[in-house]
From TrEMBL, chain A:
<feature type="region of interest" description="Disordered">
    <location>
        <begin position="94"/>
        <end position="148"/>
    </location>
</feature>
<dbReference type="InterPro" id="IPR008912">
    <property type="entry name" value="Uncharacterised_CoxE"/>
</dbReference>
<feature type="compositionally biased region" description="Basic and acidic residues">
    <location>
        <begin position="138"/>
        <end position="148"/>
    </location>
</feature>
<dbReference type="InterPro" id="IPR011195">
    <property type="entry name" value="UCP010256"/>
</dbReference>
<dbReference type="InterPro" id="IPR036465">
    <property type="entry name" value="vWFA_dom_sf"/>
</dbReference>
<protein>
    <submittedName>
        <fullName>Carbon monoxide dehydrogenase, coxE accessory protein</fullName>
    </submittedName>
</protein>
<dbReference type="Pfam" id="PF05762">
    <property type="entry name" value="VWA_CoxE"/>
</dbReference>
UniProtKB/TrEMBL annotation, chain B:
<protein>
    <submittedName>
        <fullName>ATPase, AAA family</fullName>
    </submittedName>
</protein>
<dbReference type="GO" id="GO:0005524">
    <property type="term" value="F:ATP binding"/>
</dbReference>
<feature type="domain" description="AAA+ ATPase">
    <location>
        <begin position="33"/>
        <end position="194"/>
    </location>
</feature>
<dbReference type="InterPro" id="IPR011704">
    <property type="entry name" value="ATPase_dyneun-rel_AAA"/>
</dbReference>
<dbReference type="InterPro" id="IPR027417">
    <property type="entry name" value="P-loop_NTPase"/>
</dbReference>
<dbReference type="InterPro" id="IPR003593">
    <property type="entry name" value="AAA+_ATPase"/>
</dbReference>
<dbReference type="GO" id="GO:0016887">
    <property type="term" value="F:ATP hydrolysis activity"/>
</dbReference>
<dbReference type="InterPro" id="IPR050764">
    <property type="entry name" value="CbbQ/NirQ/NorQ/GpvN"/>
</dbReference>
<dbReference type="Pfam" id="PF07728">
    <property type="entry name" value="AAA_5"/>
</dbReference>
């Protein structure tokens, strides 16, 4: 996939190569998916292409290195930080670990003509520090605000031990993948169906000397199964939130059609935060959204909000709603019952996963849980990895 | 071959497409690196138009594959013409030919129906291949597409491998219905198409709406920019702007401030849902118009 219309990338000096490698690494640290092929192409562009002048370099690199809208939005700030050393926005700080050591050594490398043409190697780290302190710099202000948020956020990663978390994630991934494979086999062959499958009909006819006796039809296309997860993030669930969040992340990662909500005293739509590929980053983002975790759970109200504002959009005829909660509810049980009934009418299945079921002698006597139970299709434990794994056959049958 | 983005932008403008600098750069890189271009953006910002303009620029064919859920290889690549094959079998009955030669004849070029992807790689002159709304297709199809876009060859069991006679210029568009795979994104150049700014939208109107006054074009573009900031269920795209401008010009509008009544009456060109029409009342229209120069 190297540049077929370009050659001469060997003209690029060593210093420029190192500079470019540093930029690529910075992009990767900021969540860009950049591979070797892009770097090779970038070198080729630097040598002969339209990227000889700095003004053109930006546009060319943007088209080459960005892969999604979030990249697109971050790119200019990162580019400026690295190539021109202008004020650095908060995004750059995400990079953390390794971007510190390259620029300083590079400032001495002025033997390469390309380096001077592009501009001096920016001292990213130092300037980032300045921007933080500079009060008149709007970027600096934003940086301060995000640090305050960081202090207040809940760290989900520290809740469960790393091995179990990794296992849960892998399991959710596998579970979700197994289901997806089974469920995307659309266009199944049926005896009765509206569309004639001519390709198969003709193949079968060979045995009858070319007369199409056996007619093969295609069945109607089935809608994909969609999973909507409602995760209880209240204080009483504290010990489980971490591993559940990883589980939900796995589901969202593998399933094309999945939505996730988090509730405690109110309901938060967290799909976009959790769709982040990098699990740790996703959990960080969700941690910010879940502020105010703890305190009483008002499941009924959260469900009412879900039914009112989200249900019509996220639920279709083949939707399984999965509620992850211990059922301790400080709200009105009657309301919870009514909202559960409304939800039941909309979706195909409601699965309630309750970590307390695994405890010996547990009875769902809490008023809220008792009110919800009649509307639940599957009431299952979810306190260990095995209990989550046991769900697979059930979900696959849906 | 064009080697400068300004030159490219100018050539595109001659085909009726007003490109911004970033897009011109991306299109230039497409030529230089031979990579497909992925365009993302809201509906109605003119993603599909890019492919049309590119085809016009190179004076070549535009081959379009519209993606949808359940799209499979036979819809996208090739299919055998079964009806004709069945007829041929009947016609050969009793002719005394042996089975093998009949079969060879049945699975030959004559009975092959090209679908867009196969057609695109079998042209003499490299066409523009538009893979529209790729996010609507299934993941399996996306994986297949990836394979095709790296090798530009396909294998047809009965015929063997078909290698591209020309590498098409591939433009993919996505509305973000589904997250595309990293593999596909990495294979492509990327450009996020945003709503045009006021100056560019006015320029688009001057290119696309015959007989429009420069002042009116600018006013319309400004009003559209303000309108898009309102809380609308369906934000109007560039196509809507062009429709509306054409309607205004057709009804004899010269200046938005002087023809307020006309403006309000023709807003149906850009507001496509009942809620939006209810939201943009006469008062709101006046308020928006008040800010237009």
């Amino acid at each position: 996939m190297a540049a077929h219309a370009l050659e001469g990338s060997e003209q690029i000096g060593a210093a420029m190569r190192v500079r470019l490698a540093g930029f690529v690494r910075m992009l990767r640290d900021n969540g860009f998916k950049v591979g070797l092929a892009e770097t090779t192409d970038a070198l080729a562009l630097l040598a002969t292409g339209p990227a000889r002048r700095q003004a053109d370099l930006r546009g060319a690199f943007r088209a080459l290195f960005c892969g999604r809208r979030s990249d697109w939005l971050k790119f200019d700030a990162l580019f400026d930080a690295y190539w021109t050393g202008k004020g650095v926005k908060s995004a750059v700080k995400v990079s953390g670990s390794h971007s510190g050591n390259t620029p300083k050594t590079l400032r001495h490398l002025s033997d390469d003509a390309a380096t001077t043409e592009i501009g001096p190697a920016g001292d990213v780290e130092r300037r980032a520090g300045e921007a933080e302190e500079g009060e008149e710099d709007p970027a600096g202000k934003r940086e301060g605000a995000s640090r305050a948020e960081n202090l207040a956020k809940t760290d989900f990663r520290k809740i469960a031990d790393p091995e179990a978390v990794a296992q849960a994630h892998a399991l959710a991934e596998r579970l979700a993948h197994a289901m997806r494979v089974r469920l995307t086999r659309r266009d199944r062959q049926r005896r009765k169906g509206p569309r004639l499958d001519l390709r198969r009909t003709l193949r079968r006819s060979i045995g009858h000397g070319g007369t199409p006796i056996e007619l093969v039809r295609k069945g109607p296309r089935e809608k994909q199964l969609r999973i909507v997860v409602l995760l209880d993030a209240s204080g009483s669930m504290n010990n489980y939130t971490g591993v559940f969040t990883r589980f939900v992340h796995g589901i969202l990662d593998s399933f094309r059609e999945a939505e996730a909500f988090l509730f405690h005293t109110r309901l938060v739509h967290v799909s976009s935060a959790l769709k982040e590929r990098d699990a740790a980053r996703a959990l960080d983002r969700m941690g910010l959204m879940a502020q105010g975790v703890g305190g009483g759970t008002k499941i009924g109200e959260a469900l009412a909000e879900f039914n009112r504002w989200h249900a019509a959009r996220v639920i279709h005829s083949r939707t399984c709603v999965m509620i992850l909660s211990d059922g301790y509810d400080t709200g009105d049980p009657e309301r919870l019952g009514a909202e559960m009934a409304a939800l039941r009418r909309r979706c195909k299945r409601i699965v309630w996963l309750n970590p307390l079921i695994g405890w010996q002698g547990y009875e769902p006597t809490a008023a809220g849980m008792a009110a919800a139970l009649p509307h639940v299709d599957l009431f299952a434990p979810a306190h260990t990895l095995e209990s989550l794994a046991a769900l697979e056959p059930y979900l696959a049958k849906l | 071959m064009i080697r400068d983005k300004n030159e490219l932008a100018k050539a595109l403008a001659e085909t009726g497409y007003v490109a911004d600098e970033g897009l011109a750069t991306a299109l230039l890189l497409m030529e230089l690196l031979g990579r497909p271009l992925l365009l993302e953006g809201e509906a109605g910002v003119g993603k599909t138009e890019v492919a049309k303009a590119l085809a016009a620029l190179h004076d070549t064919d535009l081959i379009r594959l519209q993606c949808y859920e359940g799209l499979d290889r036979s819809d996208a690549l090739y299919e055998w013409n079964y009806q004709r094959q069945l007829l041929a079998i009947k016609a050969h009955e009793g002719s005394g030919e042996d089975a093998q030669s009949i079969e060879d004849a049945l699975f030959s070029e004559k009975y092959l129906l090209e679908r867009p992807l196969l057609a695109a790689i079998r042209q003499d002159k490299p066409p523009v291949l538009l893979i529209d709304e790729v996010d609507r297709a299934d993941e399996e199809f996306e994986a297949f597409l990836l394979e095709l876009l790296s090798d530009y060859q396909v294998s047809i069991p009965e015929l063997g491998t078909v290698t591209a006679t020309s590498i098409p210029k591939v433009v993919l568009t996505s509305n973000g219905t589904r997250e595309l795979s990293d593999a596909l994104r990495r294979r492509c150049l990327y450009h996020y198409v945003d709503y045009p700014d006021v100056g560019r939208e006015a320029q688009i109107l001057r290119t696309r709406v015959p007989g429009i006054d420069a002042v009116l074009a600018l006013q319309i573009a400004e009003l559209m920019a303000r309108l898009r900031k309102e809380d609308l269920a369906k934000v109007p795209g560039v196509a809507e702007t062009i429709d509306w401008a054409a309607a205004l010009v057709g009804l004899g509008g010269r200046n938005l401030h002087e023809d307020r009544e006309l403006v309000f009456d023709t807003l149906a060109c850009v507001l496509k849902t009942r809620e939006d029409q209810a939201r943009i009342t006469r008062e709101v229209t006046d308020r928006l118009l008040g800010k237009v120069a």
